[in-house]
Amino acid sequence: MQDIFRPDAEEADKLKQNFTSQCAQAGKVISDADVILLVTGAGFSADSGLAVYGDVAKVKAYQDRGLDYRDICQPEWLDSHPGLYYGFWGQCFNDYRENRPHEGYHIIARWRDGKNRNDVAGDMRSLVEAEREGSAVRMYECEQSEPYSCEGIAGAFFCFTSNIDAHSFDVFQACEIRECHGNVEIWQCSDWDCGGRHRLWRAPLDCRFHVNSENMLAPPDVDSDDSDSLKATSKTKIGADVARASVGHTFGSARLDPLKLYGLVTK
Description:
- With 267 residues, the chain is mainly alpha-helical.
- The strands form two sheets. It has a three-stranded parallel sheet. The chain has a two-stranded antiparallel sheet with strand order 4-5.
- It has eleven helices and five strands, in the order ααβααααααααβαβββ.
- The chain starts with 8 loop residues before the first helix and ends in a 65-residue tail after the last strand.
- Helices cover 37% and strands 7% of the residues.
């Protein structure tokens, strides 16, 4: 079945032959635009050294179990095999924190800064401010349900992403970002007694999951005394590792200014 978002072989060949002119045309469109809407998915994170969905589970431990990405990304593992669940997501968490957003983020941020100096950006902010003033109660109720505060108003730039690595927050403002899948920085308590907005919280800044690099498990029955270990539940702690583990492949540069995530709760 042909992927409607991918060119067929003939179209791909034509695009490659005219690559320079296509880039020039795209550049002109961006330059002439009043507003930039950036829509990103897993491919956008690849240049940061992070595995795309097709590769993230290409690890021997998962292949030996006959598991691919879709198999692992099932919430049932949290109950039936928490070691597998936290081994996978915990290692994703580690990889996302350790790899720096690539230069493309900063290039787009410079485009954003240019667009935000035009009159359209000011007009858009004014419209949003007027909308907020007319629905103050509704806005207050929405803000109470968020795990972090979001200050400011987006102007002529907005990012909509399915990526869960939270790298967009390292470069863009929180008010400019909307995530359809959330991110690994925000966790939800499994205890319903937590109640309210406090059921959503941010992982500690010094947190790192311990994952066995041979079987990619975070054993639920192994206690850890490390201060940077994150409790999985009130009864479960992340297990100790025997060597450096990695989900899929990572080759990016170390994150220099990580986890800016404006206003996020850190406890």
